[in-house]
Structures are given as C-alpha cells and as structure tokens.
Amino acid sequence: MATERDDIVFKTSQDVKLYNPGRNRLFSATHEEIRMGATADVYFVRTQEILEKEGKNDTVVTAEIFAGRPGVLAGTEECLELLRGLPLEVWGMEEGVEFGEKETVMRITGPYSVFGPYETALLGILASSSGWATAARECRIAVPDAPFYCFGARHIHPAVAPVMERAAIVGGADGAACILGAKLMGLEPVGTIPHALVLILGDTVRTALAYHTHMPPDAPRTILVDTFHDEAEEALRVAEALGEDCGAVRLDTPSERGGVTEGLVREVRARLDLAGFGHVKIFVSGGLNPERMKRLREAGADAFGVGHYISSARPIDMTMDIKAIEGRPIAKRGRIPGITNNPKLKRLI
For residues 330 and 323, is the Cβ–Cβ distance under 8 A? Predict the structure, then answer.
C-alpha cells in the first residue's frame, strides 16, 4: 500500500547499523531525525523488517494510547504534526483536557507500517508534555485568581525547553520566559531582570532607572529587590525612584537567606501601602510549588514565576496497544479486545 510520505529510512536492521549521526553536534534529535525514525526503539525497525518479509507489513490495525495515571493532556499537536499526511484515521483528546487513569487519549487506525515506527516518539511526546501540563494545572488550581508564568527552561535541556514551556501554558500558565516556548503559543515571552544585571551595575535603584530608560514602554517595570539589601527597604527605594511607572517588585530571596516567606510578603506589602505605593504589585519566584503559591497568595503576592516544579514533573506513562486487526477485535492478555469507547475523543485526522 503506497503512502503519501516516505520519511522513515530505518526499514531494516542493516539501515540501523549503517546509520552515522555524526559527532560535532548537540545530542538532541532534529525534526528530521525524529521523522526518519532515529529516535525509535530499535525493535520497531526489526518488527517492520520481519513483517515485510512475511507479507504483513501493511496490515491495517487500530491502536489505542492510554495513560498510566490521571493528568492533563498535552502534546497532541506534535503527534498530529508527526502523523499528518499519512493514510491514517486519528482520534484524540484536545490539549488541555483532563483524563483519568487507563483512559484512552488517542486512537490510530491504518497500515501498521505507516505509524508503527513512530510509537516511541508518540508515547514520549504525550508522556512528557502531559506531565508538565499537569504540574502547571496544579499551580493554576492553587492560585486561580493570580497570574503565573513558567520559568523552567533553565532546569531542562534546551532542545525540549520550548516543548515544556508550551505544555505549561496548555496546563494553565499565563505565559513563559522561554522565547520560543511563548512564541509557539502566539504569546510574547515574559521576564523581569536577573541578579546579574543588578550585580554588574552595583545598585538596585540604578538598575531600575537603567531598565526604565532603555527598555521599551511595553516592557513591564518589574524590578528585583533582593540582591544587596533588605527586600522591604529596596522595594521602597525602587518605588520612590520610578513612581507611577513602577509596576511590581520581584522577591526571589535565596534559600540560604530563608527564601520568600509569607511574613516577608506581608511586610513588603504593608510598607509599600503605607508609603503610598499601593499600585506596586509583588511578584514572587524561587522554589515555588502549589502549596507555597497558595500561602504566598494569601499573604499578598500578586503573581508568580514557577520553574523547577513544572520542569521536573514526572512524565505520565503512556502505553500503545493494538486493539483490532483488519477490524477484528484483539488484545494481549490483561487488556480488553476491541475499540474503547470514549466520548472525549474527536476525529483529528
């Protein structure tokens, strides 16, 4: 059976043996390498080769992907990009939809030779992206009335940082610091200033004034206030220097100094209000998780930057099972043969 694409180059075990990816490169896979099957588990190539020799390579099957634990689905768009243009029927949940344990999140029908080699990639895409989206949804639930942004790119390999930050937005984050991650969602990246800028310029107020002078008007005036002196003192100095143009102060106190506490947030908020700077918001980052976000929000924090909690989220195991061959229900032991009915699935291809 002819296909509309012929991306996969690993058709035999010999193809795998002869493949040389080169040495002077980053170790991440390129789009082309993923499409050609270079990230597949090798036994899928061996399976293709055997089925080809047995005259069964184009057997039409229906395969379903289900989740190992509850979560929020992300990664569907990447999966569709991998499968688009192939003679397949694909049903799936939309990104951002919650699913339960063992629930079917995607169903694929077509010649096994067309999509079999992509199983590894499909499962990996859904597993990682859904894990990140689920962590972001937990943050969203913790602070339903306050914006939070994904700052997790520095905790993960740069090749997948935009994937992670995109998944976080699917899960509920209001934006992302990673340029590509935000742009892929049609947003502008969000960020404040790093400690490096304050350290080099030597003073928080000088840094605030330099930022205000050189950055465009649409760049938020959110200034870091924990580099050299007491956070409450620095917050007041910055607010006095920028006046009405000061949008927010950012608290990112390191763990060596006790981190950002509820007491610190309350004090900064109170001192800003007493000095007439009620318009200045408090942005918190550094070691946040849903529980801390909830407590800090109650203490007066207005917005959050969340990094490690999202980027370190455990992937949600995804499994693909063949459930029908040439329309005949079938399954391995322990699984129920035949298509699983799930009204959440929509025809995607």
Answer: yes
